[in-house]
């Protein structure tokens, strides 16, 4: 930080702005365009990048105006529109680049492979980046608890995939034991290299607002590395003078996997790990998050809030967002449901500039959407379900359906 502080904030803003849209290696990546803030010493030849970052900051105009009592300044940061379909790419490019550097001469460290426990997104990112670099990847997955789309990603990328009869927290305990024994490098967000990459999403948001700070940023939380990464990105920009304040952070959890929410509600007095229940937001079905202490630092420093969402709330929020042009994942649904609550109780105002972080691509979780639109979910009204209409291939039958649907609009 002392070395970076030799330049004023305006220097960094101008440098980062000058790299937007460039193809000069490695600056075309949203992560590596901030190389000096991420991993300054690495040789560009060692970088393993799949041109991650630079994700869309979507103006959720209709969702805000029509469904959130006239919110005009609502934005969704689409971190899931990325190479492997989640924000994990932002951190994995940094971690795998560093491993690549360590394995190559002159350092030539004997790293046999890189391993992680995963609810499906970390494993996909790790496998893709390792495959691109020719490094063995080992992934520990909780059997039958991740989506089919997520499962096929490491399989296709040639990783060693262990499907274990435990939950994510069990996989996490095992990978920590295994990496303590074998020369396998741990790729979960315990490893701060991951967070160095993930923090660039925060810097990117500031840049996309022409270096103006939003009032609120809402992040879905599971293992809790990402909420800290966002804080770190914003705080770094504040300390180095790129901006003058921090946004307030909201960490949103599924009610079925809410250890941080409970901790927050206890006034930060008692953290109790739990056995997380199944949730449609399956990538955050985590009961014993490894970065809980970092999350508390982030929330305390930003006057932050922790919110929770039931299964029905998160699925409705996701589906309503889809109705306004998105294709959100259930985790984004958790963050959106938190927004609905905070807006309803007046904590977030109509004019507050608010960013909801979308963490994965909706296509990775299509089964949850199919179940919702089929109205097949027990005890859920699925109020925004839009099932297809089966119609006879006959002009009259088709016209009848359309006239009914477009009643009053024809
Ligand atoms: C899609 C998705 N959203 C949110 C999260 C939560 O991120 P974190 O574990 O850093 O809290 C994860 C992973 O846990 C995820 O895969
Ligand atoms: N959702 C994550 C859970 C592990 O989180 P990590 O950030 O510590 O790797 C996943 O996709 O595996």
From TrEMBL:
It catalyses: O-phospho-L-homoserine + H2O = L-threonine + phosphate. The keyword Lipid biosynthesis does not apply. Pathway: Amino-acid biosynthesis; L-threonine biosynthesis; L-threonine from L-aspartate: step 5/5. The modification N6-(pyridoxal phosphate)lysine is found at residue 88. Keywords: Amino-acid biosynthesis, Chloroplast, Lyase, Plastid, Pyridoxal phosphate, S-adenosyl-L-methionine, Threonine biosynthesis, Transit peptide. Residues 48-359 form the Tryptophan synthase beta chain-like PALP domain. Pfam families: PALP (PF00291). It is found in: Plastid, Chloroplast. Its EC number is 4.2.3.1. One of its GO terms (molecular function) is pyridoxal phosphate binding. Its cofactor is pyridoxal 5'-phosphate. One of its GO terms (cellular component) is chloroplast. One of its GO terms (biological process) is threonine biosynthetic process. Homodimer. Belongs to the threonine synthase family. Catalyzes the gamma-elimination of phosphate from L-phosphohomoserine and the beta-addition of water to produce L-threonine. This is Threonine synthase. It comes from Aegilops tauschii subsp. strangulata (Goatgrass).
């Amino acid at each position: 930080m002392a070395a970076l502080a030799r330049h004023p904030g305006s220097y960094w803003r101008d440098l980062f702005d000058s790299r937007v849209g460039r193809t000069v290696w490695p600056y075309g990546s949203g992560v590596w365009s901030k190389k000096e803030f991420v991993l300054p010493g690495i040789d560009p030849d060692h970088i393993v990048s799949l041109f991650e970052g630079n994700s869309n900051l979507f103006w959720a105009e209709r969702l805000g105006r029509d469904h959130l009592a006239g919110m005009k300044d609502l934005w969704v940061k689409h971190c899931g529109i990325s190479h492997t379909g989640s924000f994990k790419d932002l951190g994995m490019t940094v971690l795998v680049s560093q491993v690549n550097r360590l394995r190559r001469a002159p350092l030539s460290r004997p790293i046999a492979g890189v391993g992680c426990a995963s609810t499906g997104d970390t494993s996909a990112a790790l496998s893709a980046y390792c495959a691109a670099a020719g490094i063995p990847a080992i992934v520990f997955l909780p059997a039958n608890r991740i989506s089919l789309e997520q499962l096929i990603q490491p399989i296709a990328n040639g990783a060693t995939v262990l499907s274990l009869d435990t939950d994510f927290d069990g996989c996490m305990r095992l990978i920590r034991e295994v990496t303590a024994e074998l020369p396998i490098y741990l790729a979960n967000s315990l490893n701060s290299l991951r967070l160095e990459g993930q923090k660039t999403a925060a810097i990117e948001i500031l840049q996309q607002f022409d270096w103006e700070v939003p009032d609120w940023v809402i992040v879905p939380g599971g293992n809790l590395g990402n909420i800290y990464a966002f804080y770190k990105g914003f705080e770094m920009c504040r300390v180095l003078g790129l901006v003058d304040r921090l946004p307030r952070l909201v960490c949103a959890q599924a009610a079925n996997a809410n250890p941080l929410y409970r901790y927050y509600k206890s006034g930060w007095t008692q953290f109790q790990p739990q056995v997380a229940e199944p949730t449609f937001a399956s990538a955050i079905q985590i009961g014993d998050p490894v970065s809980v202490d970092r999350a508390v630092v982030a929330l305390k420093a930003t006057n932050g809030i922790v919110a929770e969402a039931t299964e029905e709330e998160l699925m409705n929020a996701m589906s309503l967002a889809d109705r306004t042009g998105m294709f959100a994942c259930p985790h984004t649904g958790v963050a959106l449901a938190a927004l609905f609550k905070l807006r309803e109780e007046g904590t977030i105002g109509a004019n507050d500039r608010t960013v909801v972080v979308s963490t994965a691509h909706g296509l990775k979780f299509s089964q949850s959407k199919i179940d919702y639109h089929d109205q097949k979910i027990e005890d859920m009204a699925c109020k925004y379900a839009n099932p297809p209409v089966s119609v006879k291939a006959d002009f009259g039958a088709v016209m009848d359906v359309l006239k009914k649907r477009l009643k009053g609009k024809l």
